[in-house]
Design brief:
globular, single chain, mainly beta
């Protein structure tokens, strides 16, 4: 696939779909220690990347004016558009999280008719509450304060589709780190309506809270299994996870440390390559020593550094589209605060690094 060489400017950006789904990783279920001596998490929040079923890619970030900025790759035109500032959302208190809804849960991430996208972020006010806006392109709702919080991290958002009876039901699950250090969440059962969200609730399994978290959470969904997987960097800098049942709105496991990942230098990013059921979890993070880009080797339980990628100046964000099986893209803030991408081409079996001087994450 021709890749990453053309740029353009666009005043409006197309409707966005998430390429996010994930199965819970294996690990020994046990309580996480409150704090263990380990390498610190020093990475700054980074961009949020998603891809749709056609192979278009979208990257969101918060600029230095705390406004939402977006750029996207148009696969048909083989060029990037943007960056553009999304108007009317006010000041963001965290990096955004994106959740996109479609109407068909059976054709994998990005399948079915597009319904739109919802963005979530921590407000910039003293309350640090959860905000959202839904829409797409240059048309967005005014920002809505859900009056949930205070948040102790930026949120993670997952768009889910399932069929309890006949018609598909669309929901958005939103997760964040609470001021108690544990996971909190809400579910948007009518996600485009500010009154359609359940009250904020702490995560609990067998009466125990899930945490403490050393970072904000990352989440993705397995449409076939109707289960969200939530990953985070623990207080010991390890990779931890749990699972949430979308149908029953209950947690299905306690916390599990993924010992194979070692120590993380940032919060993780997760996505599911759903070529088969339940799909392959892909996890990316910033390494500690050296400061490079690490991942779980195409879905396996082995931590590997991707050569030539780094140093990273932020948490990375991984995306995948069923339009290009085996191809992955990971975005981060790199040198000179430019947007960088690591792109894996399955056909050639190689990684390439692309810098985008036109897309400063400070702009």
């Amino acid at each position: 696939m021709a890749r990453r060489i053309a740029f353009g400017m666009a005043g409006a950006v197309g409707t966005i779909m998430a390429a996010a789904a994930l199965a819970v990783g294996a690990g020994a279920a046990r309580a996480e220690p409150a704090r263990a001596a380990a390498a610190p998490s020093y990475s700054a929040p980074g961009p949020a990347a998603v891809a749709d079923s056609y192979g278009n890619e979208y990257v969101f970030w918060r600029n230095t004016q705390d406004e939402l900025t977006e750029a996207y790759w148009d696969v048909k035109m083989a060029r990037w558009y943007g960056p553009v500032t999304v108007p009317g959302l006010g000041r963001l208190g965290s990096e955004p999280a994106a959740a996109v809804l479609s109407t068909d849960p059976y054709v994998g991430p990005g399948g079915g008719d597009l319904e739109g996208i919802c963005l979530y972020w921590m407000g910039s006010g003293a309350a640090h509450s959860l905000f959202f806006s839904c829409g797409g392109g240059s048309t967005w709702q005014k920002p809505h304060d859900l009056h949930m919080g205070p948040l102790a991290s930026g949120p993670a958002a997952v768009g889910d589709v399932y069929v309890p009876t006949v018609a598909p039901v669309q929901v958005v699950d939103v997760y964040w780190k609470g001021t108690d250090g544990n996971i909190w969440s809400t579910t948007g059962r009518d996600p485009f309506n500010r009154t359609g969200y359940t009250p904020a609730a702490p995560a609990s399994y067998n009466g125990l809270g899930l945490g403490p978290l050393g970072s904000g959470p990352a989440a993705s969904t397995d449409n076939a299994q109707e289960t969200d997987a939530v990953y985070w960097q623990g207080g010991d800098s390890g990779l931890w996870s749990s699972g949430y049942d979308v149908k029953t709105h209950s947690w299905v496991s306690g916390t599990a440390r993924q010992a194979w990942a070692g120590h993380l230098g940032s919060a993780p990013s997760v996505v599911l390559e759903q070529l088969e059921i339940p799909g392959t979890p892909l996890i990316a993070w910033q390494g500690v020593y050296p400061n490079g880009l690490w991942w779980n080797s195409g879905g396996g339980q082995k931590a590997s550094q991707i050569p030539g990628m780094g140093p990273l100046g932020s948490v990375p964000s991984i995306a995948w589209s069923p339009a290009h099986p085996g191809d992955y893209c990971i975005f981060w803030k790199g040198r000179n605060d430019y947007l960088y991408e690591a792109y894996y081409n399955f056909a050639t079996g190689s990684w390439s690094r692309i810098a985008f001087p036109q897309m400063s994450l400070l702009g």
